[in-house]
Amino acid sequence: MTAHSVVSRQEWLDARLALLAKEKDLTHRHDALAQERLQLPWVRVEKNYVFHGPDGKVTLGELFGDKDQLLIYHFMLGPEWEQGCPSCSMAADTMDANVVHLAARDVAFAMVSRAPMDQIAAFKKRMGWKAEWVSSSGTEFNTDFAVSLPAGDLKSHWYNFGTQGHPSEEGPGMSAFFKDEDGTVYHTYSTYARGLEGLLGVYTMLDVAPKGRNEDGLPWPMAWVKHHDRYETAKPAASCCGH
Q1: What is the CB neighbour count within 10 angstroms for residue 207?
Q2: Alpha-carbon dihedral 54, 57, 60, 62, rounded to 10 degrees
Q3: Domain boundaries, the chain
Q4: Confidence (pTM)
Q5: How far is the C-alpha of 12 from the C-alpha of 93, rounded, in Å?
Q6: How confident is the model at residue 238, as a pLDDT?
Q7: In what order do the strands lie in the sheet with 173-179?
Q8: Distance separating alpha carbons of residues 109 and 98, to the nearest angstrom
Q9: Per-residue pLDDT tens for 111-124?
Q10: CA-based Rg of the chain, rounded to a whole angstrom?
Q11: Does the pLDDT at position 156 exceed 90?
């Protein structure tokens, strides 16, 4: 029998309404923060970043396509890595499905990693993603946007605007850009660490499941996450003829 408290329907409703008031307050504060985020000043991008794409070189400005807004996800896939970060991959599962919806709101989307393009292409094919994904190999893009540790840099705090360290030389992030009619590109926003949590759609669902994220006791919170093709699946039931 469950050890959780079990009450009458009316007692449950009273507790649920009390929690609903807190949820509504959080929603309103989130809305206010979103509006404040839109008021941040912008920074003109002075460097001419040129990436390696599946069809050759592509500039930061060209990643916008016919849109004037661009979101870039800084995907953790280093030059020597055998495969992409499982947590970034879980986020990409959600983001890839939303590219068409972003485009409907005049927003382009791309992922950027330091790995060479052939490595990116192979992993992208394995995962079945369609979103634009380019290589920043040979550029300063990743270090400029603080998602790759500069070579020889032993500082303990370099990630998330210098507020924390990171367990590897690569870190995740998302950056937003705007391009005006003259083609000038502006950096408008970046977020890292738990600022990316909203991209993990599965967490929104787990947060309302009876046991929540259920990550207590794990070596680290996301230790359970695997690439979507690496989870164990149930064996198919035997047919009536034993095959």
Answers
A1: 9
A2: -80
A3: 44-199
A4: 0.91
A5: 35
A6: 40
A7: 43-44, 185-192, 173-179, 69-74, 107-113, 132-135, 50-53, 56-59
A8: 9
A9: 999 999 999 999 99
A10: 21
A11: no
pLDDT, tens only, 165-216: 888 889 999 999 999 999 999 999 999 999 999 999 999 999 999 999 999 9
Under a CB-based contact definition with an 8 Å cutoff, are residues 171 and 87 in contact?
A: no
Contact 189, 177 (CB under 8 A): no
CATH class of 44-199: alpha beta
Nearest of 90, 125, 129 to residue 110 by alpha carbon: 129
SS (H, E, C) the chain: CCCCCCCCHHHHHHHHHHHHHHHHHHHHHHHHHHHHHHCCCCEECCCCCEEEECCEEEECHHHHCCCCEEEEEECCCCCCCCCCCHHHHHHHHHHHHHHHHHHCCCEEEEEEECCCHHHHHHHHHHHCCCCEEEECCCCCHHHHCCCECCCCCCCCCCECCCCECCCCCECCEEEEEEECCCCCEEEEEEEEHHHHHHHCHHHHHHCCCCCCCCCCCCCCCCCCCCCCCCCCCCCCCCCCCCC
pLDDT of residue 218: 96
